[in-house]
Amino acid sequence: MTDQTEGELLARFVQGDLDAFECLYREYHGEVYQWAMRIVRDAGGAEDVLVEAFWRAYRGRARFDASRSFGAWMRRITTNAALDHLRAMRSRGKWVMIDDKIAAPAATAQGLGESVIRAFGKLPPKLQLVATLALIEELPYAEIADALHVPVGTVKSRAFRAIRALRKELAQLGIEP
Amino acid sequence: MTDEYLKDLLRSALPPMSRQGPARDLWPKVVSRIEAPPGWSWLDISVAIGLAIALLIFPKALLLIAFHF
Fold it and tell me: Model pTM?
């Protein structure tokens, strides 16, 4: 997609043109899905987050500045939708961390791996999100800060708090290597 | 337990996600979500309840509302 074409598309999208929005969807849905997947770690959940994120984007299109990056804007919306998804899962007591089809504990002994997963699932959603992106996916703090629309210092602080909370949870599960 | 060991433990139990796209086309779901009639938000419900209570306490306020129609 050339800059001019994308600029035109974005302008049409802001005016509510659904065809333009579909073109943007086709261009960005893979990126949005992968980002959602990194946070919620479940294929069904990532699909829900994707639909929610694009719906929020369309609903909030008037607030989009067409001179800025649509991808970065979508990433922020997706991050918020994924965070809401984590909160909803937590309130329903259904925290899915491993998609059977995609990921499985690797080098860790099964019991220890399950304890780590359980401890991770008990982290507050905001800490869980930062821990997932910073500690598991190993993304730069600046990238996470941009997606969350918070200062880098806040991300660092949340990562530190996540490690501390995780250590505490593991200690309660009797794991203090 | 050092931070690095904890991170290694975490990454072993929860490996980074592989990069893949959705298994099916989700555009129709996005469209049906966009086209669905908007439901009542918590704010709408709160305002409606507040208005109903206000009318019960101050029934004459109904005349004020009726005046505007």
Answer: 0.78
